[in-house]
Amino acid sequence: MTVRSGTAEWHGNVQSGSGTVTVGDGVFEGAYSYDSRFGEGKGTNPEQRIAAGHAACFTMALSNILSAAGHPPESLRTDARVQLRNSDGVPTLARITLDTEGRVPGIVERQFQAHAEEAKRVCPVSRAGRDPRDRLDGQARRRHVMDVDIAVLGGPGGYTAAIRAAQLGDPRPAARQRHDQAADGT
Fold first, then answer.
1. Element (H, E) at 161
2. pLDDT tens sequence across 97-118
């Protein structure tokens, strides 16, 4: 099993304090604060780290799938946006949107679409948001749902897969949540 790490250190109260986040053994280190997280202040924030990780993971998964199918990409680029919203009085990761563009010789739109769907299914970061067995101390917690729609645009020179509405959490009405849970047996 591969284990990756990150650390964070914080000094002071949440609104006027500040901290440092470190990825791995110092591959990245950056300052963060209340203003860099909830405003437009200088520095990084946890949501940027989540966005970068999701973009990297999905892009690698798609590259692997395309290559295994005999279509190694010339290039792939994924931009991820994490939306942080106030839900039930607390900051919540409400949505992650991925936009992927690629130059993949010898592939048609239908194939690219299928490979992007497969990447969505196997990407470990995408899977982390939709595991119905999410547990804490042996007790089942609220299920996380990740809905991702992919639209492919482009032609022989390259395709763009616009992956929309990747959700962490589920702000939809309870009736819809029950339908989703019943549909997959959870």
1. strand 158-166
2. 888 888 888 888 788 878 988 9
Is the distance from CB of 149 to CB of 126 less than 8 angstroms? no
Distance set, CA 88 to CA 107, 132, 141 (Å): 45, 22, 17
Q: What are the distances in angstroms from CA 89 to CA 79, 85, 92, 132? A: 29, 9, 9, 24
Domains of the chain: 7-44 (no CATH), 46-184 (3.30.300.20)
- Contact residues for 37 (Cβ-Cβ < 8 A; gap 6+): 45, 46, 47, 84
pTM: 0.71
Question: What's the Cα-to-Cα distance from 179 to each of 14, 41, 145, rounded to whole Å?
Answer: 39, 41, 12
